[in-house]
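Record type: monomer structure entry
Structure origin: computed from sequence
Chain ID: A
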Amino acid sequence: MFKKVIIVLILGFYPASGSAQQVRPSKSSDIYRDLKTLKHLPKVLYLAAHPDDENTGLLSWLINDQNVETGYLSLTRGDGGQNLLGTEQGAALGLIRTHELLEARKLDGAQQFFTRAIDFGFSKNTTDTFKQWDADSITADVVWVIRQFRPDVIICRFPPTSAAGHGQHAASAVIAEKAFKLAGDKTAFPDQLKYVNAWQPKRVLWNTFRFGAVNTTAENQLKVTVGQYDAQLGMGYGELAGLSRSLHKSQGAGTQSVAGIRTEYFSHVAGEPAKTTLFDGIVKTWTTRGHADIDQSLDKIISDFSFNDPERSLPALLALRKKIMALQDADLKSDKIKSLDRIILSCAGFMGEAVTGQAEAIAGDHLNFRLNVISRATHPVVLENVKWLNQSESFNRKLSRDSLITIDHKIQIPADAALTEPYWLAKPATNAATFSVPSDTLIGLPEAESPLNVLLGLRIGSEKFEVQLPLSFKKLDPVRGDVVEALRIVPALELKFTQPLYLAKENEDLHLSLNVKINSDKQFNKGILDLTYKGERLGGSELKSINGKDFTVDCIIPKNKLAAINSTRVQLDADFVADGVPYHKKQVLIQYPHLPSLQYFAPAAVTVMKGDIQAKVKKVGYIEGAGDFVPEFLRIAGIQVEVLKDEDFYGNPDGSAGNSSRNKLSQYDAIVLGIRANNTEKKLGRWMPFLWSYVKDGGNLVMQYNTNQDATVDQLGMYNFSIANKRVTEENSAVTILNPNHKLLNDPNRITAEDFKGWVQERGAYFPVQWDGAYEPLFEMHDTGEEPLRGSTLYARYGKGNFIYTPLAFFRQLPAGNVGAARLFLNFLSAQKN
């Protein structure tokens, strides 16, 4: 059943920026572009699988040169990828990448859409992909976006073949063609038709490409010249595309801004073929739709537009609004009136915000808000009324030109206000590859509109407008200046374990702690904390009084209760009942300089690794790569970890190399290189000789996976090996231990096939494919139907020490609490001790 959301504008999608915290006027050049786009009726939907799959150069050209309303539909939010910024994985990474896409769309001007599909990691073909994704439900999502956005042309980034290079890429093309054929069929997904009409695009095209050695372009394909210089932008569209794409910072997708024209190629997929342009046979103008008067009005508005004084266009724009409001075509009217209203507000120089001085609130709170509104127009703009959530107030106050009006008002947050979090994370996923959403009409939206808004009633001339201002937090940052973000609703009480993971030792009680954060001024009389496993209480604590301040609770899980659990991975759930009200959530707050503060809530739970996990090392040096959890895991395991810096390799005060650097490194039982260290640590080239000397003198060097992209050094090991994009994506694939008696597989932990059970997402990636005979491979593994790979771990003696290269995905397995992976990794670290 297609469920309707209670608060959602189902007549159209929001702009790419989502629920902006302020309404601000656009620059004159942007207003001018929007006017030209209002005149052009065609729409384009670009469709691919992941954030960063979009062709930003083509999007920039379509929007700024062709003045065609364009959207990018990414089937996933990039949850299964890797993170160059920090340790976030899974849902947290998907949230980061969602907002990086929104920041990119602010630059290139496209709209942004998503389906419910979860990026479960790399897949090699569509068969693998559709084992995870339900093709029908994802197709329904794409049909919904098509019917909402109403594109005339759909452009796929990838083909449905192996040339796509990724199973999810190819699947996006399969779904696109299927959705194209169903979107205009009234018998397909009929529940959607309660809210939208069927819509049939004219065609589907594949935007062919040259990616490395793969060239899918051909001279007999439809060709379009893009990248032209735009004086209003001060750059070419290829340069703008580079800036837009470089906002995918968590993926390290920094891209050159390339000046000059280039050719894009398109291959026909479905629908009516295009012979000369992307828009062959498509209704392009209002006149063709029978509204020549609207075309004429827009022509005059555009020709008379003043970049120095956009307000001059207001009378003509208001007259145009009356004409569009009179249209009989409800879909066309609702679509275009949104764009026109934004143009009118911008020409009036209108700004509005509703701000308070605190970032967080709980349901039922009373907060002091300040409403700031201003118009820069001499044309009369009247603030008729304000609705403060649950109260309305009449004003009928004319906004004097360039004079800020400030209105203070105390607002009560509704007692039933939902916690602030992304709509797709508010409920547990229906399965491993599909998000669960509270309402089907939210599908497609990058984020839901805030339900907490001040609603302004404005009158400009004789036309009335409603403007929503989300309740926001505003502060002055000494570095960033004004920071305006969404007011975040949080629970009165939050729980969070002091560690993200615990290791339970055999025959010992488990000691753990929780931080209890009090967000409310309310005094709690007493509280009861329960720690449960699958509903069974294993431990907890009772507090006779709570003084209203944050505090920590220490708990013990008896060893006999742990021993009775027949699992090596135990998830403990925490539930705190304060004065009869249960609390069981922890806040996940993500903050990076290029993004707004991002928040969601997860169950207050922790993983306990239960099993025989031994280590012989006490002190480890770590060279950081891209963000991963390994150093934190090692500290939890009781190992001292020191992050190595330049001075650790250059021991003399004058910066020259000396024996002291060798002595410094010799104190470590092992030195570990983080994931992709050769791609992210640009000092590695001058550190490598010291690391080789460390091994030669009896050290143990463990190197995790790297890629060939933007590599710092060409030779990673003391003996040569080369890596390629070879991987094992089936996390449950069979593993053959090549030498069961190898010391790395026997001390301090005896490694067997059991240790490869329960892995998540993948075995590993970027395996070595060729190596010097000095290396010994430890394992053989492969995905179904593929040739066996032996490059998952290479071991070599060098001098008195050991070198290990392992692209196995420990950075995923350790935070997931995989005991077998932990045992194997600690064996690698202990190589010089056995």
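Annotation 1: Confidence is low (pLDDT under 50) at residues 5-18.
Annotation 2: The CA atoms of residues 56 and 241 lie 5 Å apart.
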